[in-house]
Here is the input.
Amino acid sequence: MDFKPEYTKEQEEFRKEVRAWVEENARYPEELGPIPLSSGDMSREMWLWGRDFQRKLGAKGWYYPTYPKEYGGGGLSGDKDIIIKEELRRVEHPVAYSMVSMAAPALLVYGTEEQKQRLLKPMLRGEMVAWQAFTEPGAGSDLASLQTRAVRDGDDFIITGEKCFIGGHHEPDVLWAPVMTDPDAPRHMNLGAFVIPANLPGISIRFQNLVIREGKRAVTFEGARVSREYLVGGETQGWRVIQSSLEIEHGGGGSVLPEDDPIVTGALEFCKKTLRNGVPLSSDPAIQKEMVDLYIEANVHRLIGMRNHWMHNNNVPGTYHGSQNSLVGKYTALRSAVKLLNALGPFALTVDPKWGALEGKVEDHQRHTLGSDHRGGTIDVQKVIIARRIGISRTRERAAPTRAQAG
Ligand SMILES: Cc1cc2nc3c(=O)[nH]c(=O)nc-3n(C[C@H](O)[C@H](O)[C@H](O)COP(=O)(O)OP(=O)(O)OC[C@H]3O[C@@H](n4cnc5c(N)ncnc54)[C@H](O)[C@@H]3O)c2cc1C
Here is the structure.
């Protein structure tokens, strides 16, 4: 089965330009050591290199290639975005964690012109790391139950509360956070959406040691004073504003995944070259079946992501499409974990020279895929959204505006 896309001559010319730039700029100094399996183990020096590289990409307009140039993007078409992403993947380099992708669509749709210049532009140029601070101990799937409070005080808001499962390694510049501004208003009409500078007095961030590879952070706000300038949209419009972020988080913007997914390709190669009882693992029909399914499912998810990417960048309105991408991705991830173990055996989880597989990557992959059910809305939540979007639920719902509709 051939899942390869074809490219025009002009696209291949652009690829040459990108490849040359990436070859020159994405090679990181050897003295920083090998990139760790878990991004949580990334040294500060390596992270700083990643941040610097983000800025270089941003200066070229290749960090967020399809966003408008006037706000720090590249003003490029979706096909060029795909080529940039493919070329970046060819050269292994440290990536500094950031969730600008979530804050940016909301800022683009609901931010004032001044906020787009002050906040969106540095984000898209790779100069500002944003973490998404939505979830709270009492509000995950039911995000409308958020309790973190913002109390107005003159031109400022005083923020108090707790967020959990937030961010990644090292530190953010800003936190993109919905917060309750009116406790007397009904659900969905009681939130404001803020881009909160992370270094304000009254904000503390601590590590949460989870089964997933990178760990997450709990963020506590104890009377943090935030200027009104950081409120995006109206004071009680936050629910609507964050829908633009969630639309992208659920997959509405699409994804560009490689045909040769590293864990799938690694497992295929491993099965071909590893002998058990004198024959390669790949000669066993049961293992062949697991491997073929693994390859096909990964590529089906990849193509759904590409379709959404094309729709998003060509202003084709989506309905169920984002959550379909998320749902298929989550199922694919969970099933791939089972298939890998079925094919390689439980000892593949070890780094034993004879019985282990892929230098610990299988064990890492198992833990990571467990978390993928929950991050960015669970499987059940994606099903609820799809039901609402295709009209088989109690309520009918439309896709939220994102950059496609904005411009
Ligand atoms: C790896 C990882 C990364 C994350 N990163 C971030 C981040 O960067 N920023 C951030 O803000 N949050 C982040 N999260 C939090 C994530 O968004 C929440 O875990 C998620 O929204 C689910 O919330 P919860 O954990 O409170 O589970 P709950 O909402 O308590 O759900 C528990 C179970 O009940 C089911 N359930 C809940 N409601 C319904 C319903 N109505 N119908 C059917 N079933 C239902 C769920 O599907 C789930 O199986 C991350 C989580 C993980 C695991």
